[in-house]
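Collaborator request, handled under Task 6.
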Amino acid sequence: MSYSQLDDVILKLTDEVTVKVLNILLDQREIFDEDIVNILNEGITEENIDPDSSEEENVIRIALKEVRKSLYKLNERSLARYRRVRDKETGYFVYYWSPIWERIRDLIVSRRKQTIKKLKQRLDYEQRNLLYVCEEGHTPVTFSDAFEFGFLCTVCGQELAQKENAETISVLQNKISELEKILKTGLEEIEGIEERMEKTTNS
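Structure tokens returned to the collaborator:
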């Protein structure tokens, strides 16, 4: 299973392999690192790897070293924890990994809300101000700034004219509405994951 709200939020912080590893942690609750490698590489065999193809065309197996690197990244960000157990047969320590769900949930929600807040601030700015811009489209300025600059662009020196920002306002409103729906869907998805994890813990 892939959690849509998780993927694009976590991907901004790290890489694709780490996102896949975290999704597996959420599915498995607690898992040995080598088992994560097996899940990621499931179905990949020597027969379906073409040694003559380019890297883009080829199917590349993910190594244990890369998975462990991803797990350490998640641990550093307090998104995953490990439980160390000594193997009775080998005497070596093995590590079982699990997600820190509360931290993941808070990160997803806070990132979404932060983005929405910034867009609302931009929308408020667009709605409250008469903005002026040159033909080259350099950064718009307010009326007071345009007046101070003699209605000339400080970048290219061209004359500033009032910007028609109805389209910008509409785009911002639509984007905010879209993200608010995504956040709502994400919260519902989060509740579903929490319920599933609670059942797993109690079973």
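The cover message to the collaborator said: "The chain has seven helices and six strands. The chain has two domains: 4-99, 101-203. Please let us know whether this matches your experimental observations."
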